[in-house]
Design goal:
376 residues, alpha/beta, Rossmann fold, 2 domains, seven-stranded parallel β-sheet, six-stranded parallel β-sheet
Length: 376
C-alpha cells in the first residue's frame, strides 16, 4: 500500500518546482511514493525520471495543446480515470496535488471513499476569477468542487503572499483552514560564486518560453542590437511562439543566439557561463504582475546579476541595494535610460549572496506530508 501520492497533471519536465519536491522527498521517507503525471507530446526535453527506488512515476496520458480536441479529451479521461482507480487501489493516507487540473480525482477519493485522507494543495500560478470565468469549462467545473476541500485540506499554498491574498479574496466566503507560502527556489547545490567582473561584452542569458505579446522580447532584442556588441544575448527555449521566432530571425543579429531548451538539471552548468540573467514578463495578467519567477532565483543562485521589469511588483522586494549579485528592476520600454557602465561597476558594492534553496523552502511541507503516525 502506498502511503503517499503526488498528482501533477502537466508534464513534470516543464515544472522544476515539482521536480525539486520529488527529489527532496527522498530525505524524508523510504515509504512508497507514487507520482502521477502526463507525458509531454510537444516538448523535446529529456524525461524526468525517478530519483529513488521508493518513488514510482506513472505517466497516465499524453498531453499537449497541439493535439486535436478529440485526442486532448481522450487523454483527459485516461488521466482522471487512471488517477482515480490508482487512488482506490492504493488508498493513500496523504495526497499532494498541484493546480486545479489535478484536483478532481482527489475530490472524489476524499469525499466518497476515504474521508480521513489528508489533502495537500500547491499552486504554481495564480488564476484570477476573470481567467476562471473565461477559461475552459473543465477547469471551472473542477474548481467548483476543489473549493469544497479548502476548509478541510491539511495544506494550501501559493508561491507568495500577494497571490495568496488575491486567491483568498476570490474564493470568499470559502475559508482556507491551513494556508502557507511556498516559494520556488532551486537546489542548494546550485549556489555558485557571484560574477565580479565588469568586462564587455556582457553575456546575458534568458531561459524559458518566448512570446512577443506577453514578454519584452522585442524591446530587449532591439536594445541588444543597438548596443552594437556590448551585449551578447543567448536564449534557451523549448516553447516559443512562431511570431517570436520570426521576429528574431528577421533581426538576424550576430549578438543574439537562439538555442534549444535544456533539462533543468543542466541549468547550473549553462548559467555559469553568463554574467546576467534576464526576466521578460510584461505583467499582462495579475499572475505575472505579482510574480517572483523560478528563473529569477535560478539566475541569482548561480551568481548572475538579474534584470527584471519594474512592472513585476511581486519581484520588487528582491531588488538589491548596494550588494551583489544584483537584482535590478528597470523599465523595459525605455532601456536606453539604463546606465550600463554604472550597473556593471561593483567597486562600491559588497558581496551578499543569499542562500535561496528548495530544500529549506520545502522543509515545512515535507515534515507535514511525510510524518509517520503523527511523528515527523
Amino acid at each position: 500500500m502506498a502511503d503517499f501520492f503526488i498528482i501533477h497533471f502537466n508534464p513534470l519536465e516543464l515544472y522544476p518546482p515539482v521536480q525539486n519536491e520529488i527529489r527532496v522527498s527522498t530525505a524524508y521517507t523510504k515509504e512508497k511514493i507514487i507520482v502521477l503525471s502526463t507525458t509531454a507530446s510537444e516538448v523535446r526535453l529529456p524525461q524526468f525520471n525517478s530519483p529513488a527506488t521508493n518513488i514510482s512515476i506513472r505517466r497516465l496520458a499524453k498531453f499537449g495543446m497541439a493535439r486535436g480536441a478529440f485526442s486532448r479529451y481522450l487523454n483527459f479521461i485516461k488521466f482522471y480515470l487512471g488517477s482515480f482507480f490508482l487512488l482506490l487501489r492504493h488508498r493513500p493516507a496523504r495526497i499532494l496535488y498541484y493546480e486545479t487540473l489535478s484536483s478532481f480525482p482527489v475530490f472524489l477519493y476524499k469525499n466518497f471513499f476515504n474521508k480521513k485522507a489528508e489533502v495537500f494543495i500547491h499552486y504554481h500560478e495564480y488564476t484570477s476569477m476573470q481567467e476562471h470565468t473565461s477559461g475552459t469549462k473543465l477547469l471551472q467545473y473542477f474548481h467548483r468542487y476543489e473549493k469544497k476541500m479548502y476548509p478541510v485540506a491539511r495544506w494550501v499554498s501559493h508561491t507568495n503572499e500577494n497571490r495568496m491574498m488575491m486567491f483568498e479574496k476570490d474564493i470568499a466566503p470559502v475559508r482556507i483552514a491551513n494556508k502557507y507560502i511556498l516559494p520556488n527556489y532551486p537546489p542548494a547545490s546550485w549556489q555558485s560564486a557571484p560574477k565580479t567582473g565588469s568586462n564587455l561584452p556582457v553575456k546575458c542569458v534568458y531561459v524559458g518560453a518566448l512570446s512577443l505579446q506577453t514578454m519584452y522580447v522585442k524591446e530587449f532584442a532591439e536594445w541588444v542590437v543597438q548596443m552594437n556588441g556590448k551585449i551578447i544575448w543567448d536564449i534557451y527555449t523549448q516553447n516559443a511562439d512562431p511570431e517570436a521566432i520570426y521576429f528574431l530571425g528577421k533581426i538576424n543579429s550576430d549578438y543574439i543566439h537562439l538555442h534549444n531548451g535544456i533539462a533543468y538539471t543542466e541549468l547550473p552548468q549553462v548559467l555559469n557561463k553568463y554574467d546576467m540573467g534576464i526576466v521578460l514578463y510584461k505583467g499582462h495578467i495579475p499572475n505575472y504582475v505579482f510574480n517572483a519567477p523560478n528563473k529569477l532565483f535560478e539566475y541569482y543562485v548561480c551568481g548572475l546579476d538579474v534584470l527584471i521589469p519594474e512592472v513585476m511588483k511581486g519581484s520588487l522586494q528582491y531588488v538589491t541595494e548596494n550588494t551583489y549579485p544584483q537584482i535590478i528592476a528597470v523599465n523595459f520600454e525605455d532601456l536606453n535610460s539604463l546606465e550600463l557602465d554604472a550597473m556593471l561597476d561593483k567597486s562600491k558594492l559588497s558581496q551578499l549572496h543569499k542562500p535561496y534553496s528548495c530544500e529549506k523552502a520545502l522543509e515545512e511541507l515535507n515534515k507535514e506530508f511525510f510524518r509517520i503516525d503523527g511523528i515527523s
